[in-house]
Amino acid sequence: MNHKISKEIFKKAQKYIPGGVNSPVRAFKSVSREAPIFACKGEGAKIWDEDGNEYIDYICSWGPLILGHNHPKIIAGVRDAIELGSSFGLPTKKEVELAELITKCCPSIEMVRLTTSGTEATMSAVRLARAYTNRNKIAKFEGCYHGHSDALLVKSGSGLLTDGYQDSNGITEGVLKDTITIPFGNLKELNNILEKKNIACLIMEPVPANMGVIYPDVEFLKAVRELCTKTGTLLIFDEVISGFRLALGGAQEYFGITPDMTTLGKIIGGGYPVGAFGGKSEIMQLVAPMGRVYHAGTLSGNPIAVRAGYEMLTYLDENKETLYKELEDKVKYITKEAKKSAEKYGVNVVINSIGSLFTVFFTDKKEINNLKDALSSNTENFAIYFNTMLENGIICPPSQFEAHFVSIAHTQEILDKTLKVIDMAFKTIGEKNEK
Questions:
Q1: Region label for 185, one of left (φ > 0), alpha (ψ between -120 and 50) or beta (otherwise)
Q2: Which of 46, 266, 324, 373 is an active site residue?
Q3: N or C: the chain end with fewer CB closer than 10 Å?
């Protein structure tokens, strides 16, 4: 494939944008690329770059495009909304309809506040938890990424892991002291911390997907819920990725566990900028103007994003009986066949999957259950995998520590083509390992 134009754009971008990108993982640094590809168009399960190359897309804008790119229902709604105006700085009827739909789909959410991003949603939820409990400290699990607000960047995942570190510079000592981190799955350590009864909230991805996909132990999740209730610690499920991806009600429906608050993003805007935090009414009533926990935003509830989200969630609600099983079956098929290819060429992998997400970990370990396990991965082998896929028309997340996303637009033909290229990648890795 020729990437001449993308390289030229990247060279120019580096003069005006730090690192040439507006989100670190997009730089393709960890997969040994001279430059990222610059996308220009998407349709169904495919995207095209500025050089005219066509790719099957397993990034899906990091999750929200569960219906694929430019789904007709969403595009029609967005066109209608654009013609009425781009932004008002005033409430609109559709905001109320989207909020009602979110509360219908997520039983744990009685009231919801819209934001412009998942980062804003998690930041606001934590602030609200501190106000509700009158406690300052918060707890999170190592390797879970909850956006780039100061308190939640401590021992984080996603782009930080991709670049080989877990904390960001610029965070004050006080913030570091107020954020307690625990290895994912370590109930004993979590119990020791929460028993002190000075933790405002535990924020967690019920399905970690920012150190690669981790399939959680259901009994662990139940124990976490019980422990938070016992100690008066608010349990916040960060479902920015898992929300509406595993089931209509997210991971909380999938596992049957009810958090006190939930954060959402990405998918509730159908691919347009949006986020939300919500929960029990008695907690949410502390948010201004009802209470004194301040949250505001000119573009919160932007009419175009709201319309896209309404069309998205309506479609998911109307098709939930078949859509989620279809997605899960697609992922089971591709991961089962990929494991066969890995065995054929003697490539050590662990492939974790749940719902419409999966991650291929290149590791000698038998299981990947937490950050320590994930960090055992051979990133050199992942780079070979990524580049083989890319040069053969398939774009995957440019990081070992992210999830692949499947949409309803990924047909059987597309899955079979993907598996042929995965086989090529594993063959190349196997031959390298033999030398």
A1: left
A2: 266
A3: C
